[in-house]
Amino acid sequence: MSGPLLIREELPGDPARIAVLTAAAFAPMPFSDGTEPAMIEGLRAARALTLSLVAEQDGDIVGHVAFSPATIEGRHDDWYALGPISVRPDLQRNGIGKLLIAEGLVRLKKVGAAGCALIGDPGYYSRFGFRNDGCLTHPGLDPHFVQWLRLRPGPAPVGVLRFATAFGPDPTAS
Question: Which residues, other chains included, contact 49 with Cβ-Cβ below 8 Å and sequence gap of 6+?
Fold first, then answer.
């Protein structure tokens, strides 16, 4: 790969390539259950894929990030979830994911989003300003991994974070 990296919105011909990339990126991850491509497709099918950005280099999709509506205490209030994020395995740790996240957050801020939340490694996501103060929780998860970032002035989020149904069943539902 030698050409410039282009960050752009998903186009109609991209979903199959995004699915292949996502499966490859998550295959070696011990925390993955392999459902990440289906999550993205579920978000797309439910029209809940608010922002879908790809990193393209030399005509190949080498990275992808999804943003979708999230709720806190049952209210959307302009909060969004980040994820899944994927980078082609041989190009990981080269800044592609960082560029995708940064561009996605800029675009969410431009459309007036209140904030963004995610489940992930605080050591990685803190570099973008994400916090994990324990005020935002997700059923069945250590609050240490539940993180948030305000994109416009307002109070810190407090309560239970929930993602679109494409992320899987609610662990508290019966």
Answer: 10, 40, 43, 66, 67, 68
CA distance 150 to 118: 12
Which residues, at least 6 apart from 24, have a Cβ–Cβ distance to it below 8 Å? 86, 88, 89
Q: Name 61's bridge partners.
A: 56
pLDDT along the chain (174 residues), means of 10: 88 97 87 86 94 97 97 94 95 95 98 96 94 91 93 94 76 42
Q: Who's near 16: CB < 8 A, 6+ residues apart?
A: none
What is the Cβ-side half-sphere exposure of residue 87, based on CA atoms within 13 angstroms? 14
Q: How many Cβ atoms sit within 10 Å of the Cβ of residue 116? A: 26
pTM for the model stands at 0.91
In terms of Cα–Cα distance, which of 125, 123, 46 is closest to 85? 125
> To the nearest 10°, the Cα dihedral for 27, 117, 60, 95?
-90
Sign of the Cα pseudo-torsion (122, 171, 44, 158, in order): negative
Helix (H, G, I), strand (E, B) or coil at 158: coil
